Amino acid sequence: MTTATDLQPPNLKGSLADRVALVTGGTRGIGAAISRRLADEGAEVAAGYWRHTEPAEKFLASITAEHPGRLITLHHGNIGVARTAAAWCTT
């Protein structure tokens, strides 16, 4: 099946250049798709995850390979905990 996303080439400069996107749950499923799309549009991506470290690290390797030179970071923790949320926003 072909989707509209498949038909659009990645935007190397992008409308989101010089922006940072924090995506909670950003390493799996819909969150991973959102992270990839934001990176396609030029954003630097901070992808959060709570569990499943190994798949998160595989996601990081994959998206970094797709977007060389773009800053993509992983952030572990439960965003529902104020201390974790504050730490994500200051790193």
What do these coordinates show?
This protein is of the alpha/beta class and 91 residues long. It has one domain (16-90): Rossmann fold. It has four helices and three strands, in the order H-E-H-E-H-E-H. It has helices spanning 4-7, 29-40, 53-66, 82-90; strands at 20-23, 44-49, 72-76. It has a three-stranded parallel beta sheet with strand order 1-2-3, covered by helices on one side.
Features of the shown structure:
91 residues, alpha/beta, Rossmann fold, 3-stranded parallel beta sheet, 4 helices, 43% helix, 16% strand, globular
Describe this structure in a few short sentences.
The chain is an alpha/beta fold and 91 residues long.
**Based on CA inertia axes, which overall geometry fits?**
globular
The total number of structural domains is: 1
What is the CATH superfamily label?
NAD(P)-binding Rossmann-like Domain
The CATH class? Alpha Beta
Low-confidence stretches: none
End-to-end separation: 39 Å
Strand/helix succession? HEHEHEH
The CATH architecture assignment turns out to be 3-Layer(aba) Sandwich
On the 0 to 100 scale, the average pLDDT is 87
Q: Helical amount among residues, as a percent range?
A: 40-55%
Strand order of the largest sheet: 1-2-3
Strand content: 15-25%
By DSSP, the count of extended strands is 3
Q: How large, in whole angstroms, is the Cα Rg?
A: 13 Å
